[in-house]
Amino acid sequence: MGKLYLVRHGETVANAGGKLQGWMDAPLNERGRSQAQDAAAFFKNIHLDAVYCSTLQRARETAEILAAPHGLPVHAEQDLREFHFGAWEGLNHEEIDALDHEEWAKFFIRPKELRVRDGETFGSLQERMVKTWQRIQAQEGPDKDILLVSHGGSLRTLICYLLGLDLNYMWRLRLENLSTTCFEFWDNRPVLNFANATFYRKTSGNRTTLW
Fold first, then answer.
1. 7 vs 4, 106, 187, CA distance in Å?
2. Which of 9, 11, 61, 89 is catalytic?
């Protein structure tokens, strides 16, 4: 019975400032690195067969910290990247609302209908996430324990697929920075073990970044 550990990357400067990053390539901030070290202390006692991540720096840096105690290589996959926010990248809620009020109104309520200029759709994001996961599982084997580090939006679409949820429910899933969501596979059927676990984080402060 294999396990899939889905980890959202640690905090970045844009996360702390409430800005959408998408394909912007930013490193972890100091708090994000501390979060990753806390998580690594937890994961060092958990069996892992392979580690995969997005090619974006914040996810790759997180994955490398988590993989280090296991001596495992980190496999970076381009299609595990975050949602491409197009014209919205680098903007906060207020700036996006002023720029494109009608589309922003759909973001949390009807994400399947969202169309962002120069960006992608959540349906296309889910398609690439699911295809990449299926390929990873096929090449690693159904009984392997795999750590996958990605992003808030992209992980939510994969979780919706694994749970059989409509994409319009994706923002009802809470995924904080450096949270872990775990699935077990029974006869290749995904079963949710736990979600949005952050108990291992020792980083001080009450700030949470949910998306």
1. 10, 26, 23
2. 9
Residues of the chain with pLDDT under 50: 205-206, 210
Catalytic, out of 61, 64, 77, 82 = 82
Does residue 82 carry a catalytic annotation? yes
Q: What is the pLDDT of residues 153-209, one digit of tens each?
A: 999 999 999 999 999 999 999 999 999 999 999 988 999 999 999 999 886 544 555
Q: Is 151 annotated as catalytic?
A: no
Kindly calculate the radius of gyration of the chain based on its CA atoms and give it in whole angstroms.
16
CA separation for the pair 22, 211 (Å, rounded): 10
Domain boundaries, given as residue ranges, for the chain:
3-197
The dotted CATH code for 3-197 is 3.40.50.1240
pTM of the model: 0.95
CA distance 143 to 126: 24
Report DSSP letters for the chain, one per residue: --EEEEEEPPP-HHHHTTB--TT------HHHHHHHHHHHHHHTTS--SEEEEESSHHHHHHHHHHHGGGT--EEEEGGGSPP--GGGTT-BHHHHHHH-HHHHTTTTT-GGG---TTS--HHHHHHHHHHHHHHHHHHH-TT-EEEEEE-HHHHHHHHHHHHT--GGGGGGS---TT-EEEEEEETTEEEEEEEEE-TT----S------
